[in-house]
Amino acid sequence: MAAWAAVVLILIGTLVAALNRVTIEAESTSVSLISVKALDRANYLRQYWELNGKPEYAEIKGAIVRFNNKGWVTPYLDGVKSCDAWEQLLLPVPKQDYSPVSSSLLQQKDIYSCTYAFKNGELLSVNMIQGGLSIRKQIP
Known about the structure:
Blueprint: H1 2-51, E1 57-60, E2 63-67, E3 73-77, E4 80-81, H2 83-90, E5 102-108, E6 111-117, E7 123-129, E8 132-138
Antiparallel strand pairs: 1-2, 2-3, 3-4, 5-6, 6-7, 7-8
Protein name: MSHA biogenesis protein MshF
C-alpha cells in the first residue's frame, strides 16, 4: 500500500512540474504575441496616418492621438506624454492576465523608450529613436 502511495505522489509531482513548465512557456508565448500585435497596431496607425492626409493629430476610439512626421504614433494620449499612452494605443488587451505589471521610461534628446515588464520577468520595449519606432521583446 505504501508503494502505491509513493507512486501516486511521484505521478502528482511529475504532473505539477510539467504544468509549471507549460505555464512558463504560455506566458513567454503571450509576451511574444503581444509584441507582434503591438507592431501590427503601430503599422495600422501609420497606414491610417498615410490614408488620412498625414495629420499631426487624429481622434481614434475617442482619444486624441499624435503622430510624428514619419507617421508613427507618439506616446501622447489626450495631450499627456507617458508610457501609458503607448500601452493603451499599441498593446492589445490580453484575454488572460498577461498585462504588463510595470513600465519604465527613458527619455533623452530624440529618444523616447518605454519598457514594459511582465510577471514572468520578460520585457517589451517600445522605442522611438529619431522618429523611427521599434517594438521588441527582451528576455533579461
